[in-house]
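User: quick one, fold this
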Amino acid sequence: MATGNHFEWQLFDGQQWTSITNDFVIETHYCQPGANGITINLNMGISFLLHRTLNIDFDEMTVDGPCYINIRRNTLLSPNQKQEVGWYYKDNHRWCEYGAQGFGGRTSSIGSNFIEQQYNSNPSGSVQFTAGNMTYKVDFNGMIQTNLSTHMSRKVRRRPKFNAIVTCNNSYQNSLPVLTSPSANPTNSSSQHIWEFMGDEGIWTEYQKPVCSLDSTEIERLYQLNPQCQVSFTVGRFSYTLYFGGMYQVNNKYGTKRAVRRTGGIQQINSALSQARWQFKDMDGKWKDYNKGGSRGHCSVSSQDIEAQYQQDSTGTMSFRTGRFTYELDFSDMTQTNQSTTTRRPVRRLQQ
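Assistant:
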């Protein structure tokens, strides 16, 4: 990576990630909303890739080549910086940025900054806006804009603006829900922290190779470089983006969002996680703690697991298992529901 760059493009050769020489050429093309991809000639010191031509698809973030070759773009910014992002729609034969004049001379009621905020809040959601007397919907999953009256659809793209870095207010950065702070000693901490995502059935699952292209050690190294950046990785044929600032990951194709946490190391887990206590009202009318792996039914989550998810989205839901039953815990109305019997029970959160 060239010194001073705010980005880093890398290829995965099936065993490790390697930085691409002169990746500013890729970055320059990628920041153009009309660019579908780029063809590059490699001379990276990787024997089977020497002098090879590879085609990069910017929309899918894939490489036309051996199935085990993957690509990713890392953003490397200081904690008080963020990359300015543009949102574009294809109007006939050109790409237009939202907020600029378009739609037959009309201007949309929202711009790139607003759309980006909505996207970061819910990458699998959508946003509606008006232009003239028409209402439109942008679907983040399909990256499609639809006229809700005529049902005409147009392609949408989200691309960074080349070398457009915005300095953020420190108070905003401090408010981001990072579970722990970076250690003062990155060398020692990388092997002591565990990175996990909320897997199926509400169970925290560690990032591990070879199933995942990244493991806890590699994620921790990138986190130490910039606790507010985003990192790309692959699991099988799917690519994902991990957002350190919000502590969540997103499936780049389907927009599925999962909570992420960082535990262990010299730093203690956020005190809110260890102090909060979650309970449900059992059939005998008594309040009982969520105990992971307890004697009764082997619950898949603990109070700490629930609190971590609650910190990520205090109005959302999470799933867990007890014995052969699956439950949904709703933070909005503080209830748990048995997905088989539909039995609902009150839930409460206590601060110790």
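User: anything notable?
Assistant: The longest strand covers residues 153-167.
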